[in-house]
Amino acid sequence: MTLHRYRSHTCGALRESDIGKDVRISGWCHRIRDHGGVLFIDLRDHYGLTQAVVDPDSPAFKLAETLRSEWVVRLDGKARMRPAGTENKDLPTGQVEVYVTEIEVLGAAGDLPMPVFGEQEYPEDIRLKYRFLDLRREKLHSNIMLRGAVIDSIRSRMKAGGFFEFQTPILTASSPEGARDYLVPSRIHPGKFYALPQAPQQFKQLIMVAGFDRYFQIAPCFRDEDARADRSPGEFYQLDLEMSFVTQQDVFDAVEPVIRGVFEEFGKGKTVTPKFPMIPYADAMRKYGSDKPDLRNPIEMQDVSEHFRGSGFKIFAKILETPGNAVWAVPAPTGGNRAFADRMNSWAQGEGQPGLGYIFWREGEEGGAGPLAKNIGPERTQAVAKQLGLGVGDACFFVAGKPKDFVKFAGLARTKVGEELKLIAQDRFDLCWIVDFPMFEWSDEEKKIDFSHNPFSMPNMDVEEFLALDPADTDKLLSINAFQYDIVCNGTELSSGAIRNHRPEVMEKAFGLAGYPKEVLEAKFGGMLNAFRLGAPPHGGIAPGIDRIVMLLAGEENLREVVLFPMNQRAEDLLMSAPSEVTQKQLKELHIRLELPKKV
């Protein structure tokens, strides 16, 4: 039998049924071990690992002694059973080894800047500069394959749900809203620029106006914004979708099975929320201190102002004299000891707070322990415990002031307590919808009403009533919710979406209420408005982040671990040396002259 030039089998294919066969495998020398003069080569390719053996009797032994880690080689030999007791049950090929009779070096490797064997941590700059080596490592390779499988699953689920896949432009117009654009100069239109899309938002809405009904795309998005662990600098991918003639519930009914199904399929047996609860934004902020709550944490905050109003704890009593101020409690089940309470207090000071008031309950002590308990007395202390369902062995922490000022810190405290006391379940994917986002908010900087989330969302109220609103009625405007919604999983926001404002007169009114004259709206969004004036259906959509979904499924905490070729925190591609300088000839063709900042 004539063997293929490079392989008769992959490095993941050999089984007991292949014993006695002449085989040819090619791959990378993953690990080379010398056992008393006998060389063992673990050969690796995309599909797996095969153990090869070369002894001094083999004609290939002399060449085998020169091999080093990550050399690419072709090995010829005979498949045989591993000796009894040396089998590797963790490998599909673990019953078999190849006795090598011939070696061909296909690609020698110099000294490695980082090892491939093993999963030890290496500095980020080395990992990104040599990303092709990093990607050879088992965990990262597995993450990227998971990403591909997740995208395949999403795509098939969307098509089964009646969605059609379309591609929208990459070179488009600069968007005046959202993050900074990446600009692309036009050679044939001097002084003008394209922009890479921050999202296909306007295009997908125009697809609905064009009558296609259900669109989706695994869409690349480009935003010139700073990096975070859960946000890639430069570019990211999202499941972008839009639907016509739908209510908010219709969007939920279409999207939820896709997201749930993917988490069930790839979640390695972790429990997935069977039906995503709908949590109003105001409730999420009040209970969890965040619009992206981690529901694996059982702690729910409560307003306990009445127990401190007029109490002996003068600081809180004084704060509560101001209308609108409140005291919130962060329960800490099982945290009832002074050491933990003091540790939380120190943490709060590290977060720039004056401290974190607390009460804890212990055996044989009437009321509770700690300075607050002594100041307010046993009756009020017991009332707090009763309201929160706490008792001996538990603690509680308190934040006070204007809720909108302390809510973010309160949410951090809830998370910190949950982490420290190990209350956060690790075997679940807890998903929910956050709904009823406020349409407007008060801007302290500009002393006016402005959009709080998405200016193109439909208000959640009767259209005629909305059109009749008085711009001076600030309280009424701040009470209006929009048809906006997020999907949150384990404290990570997966996506934002909305039922779109498809009626020009409603859009004009919304922008007018936020202080934007009609001419500004026409200048910035004239194309969209003109489309809506020529017959637009009610429509809505959402765009779950692919990178974030895969990050959660892979159990990673940084998006870099699920992206093939990520940038670093400074939006640099160390592998390709981007961004880079270009030649004067290129700049001249684009009619661009550089005016760089002076070096200090």
Describe this structure in words.
The structure is a single chain. By secondary structure, this protein is an alpha+beta fold. A hairpin with a 2-residue loop joins strand 1 (22-35) and strand 2 (38-45). Helix 15 runs antiparallel to helix 16 (518-532). The radius of gyration is 31 Å and the shape is globular. The chain starts with 21 loop residues before the first strand and ends in an 11-residue tail after the last helix.
Q: What's the Cα radius of gyration? A: 31 Å
Strands ordered across the widest β-sheet? 6-9-10-23-22-21-18-12
End-to-end CA span: 71 Å
Structural class: alpha+beta
Mass-distribution shape:
globular
Which regions have little confidence, pLDDT < 50, spanning 5+ residues? none
How many beta strands in the DSSP annotation? 23
**Biggest pleated-sheet summary:** 8 strands, mixed
Helices, by number, come to 18
Q: Kindly report the average pLDDT value.
A: 94
Helix content: 25-40%
* Percent of residues in beta strands: 15-25%
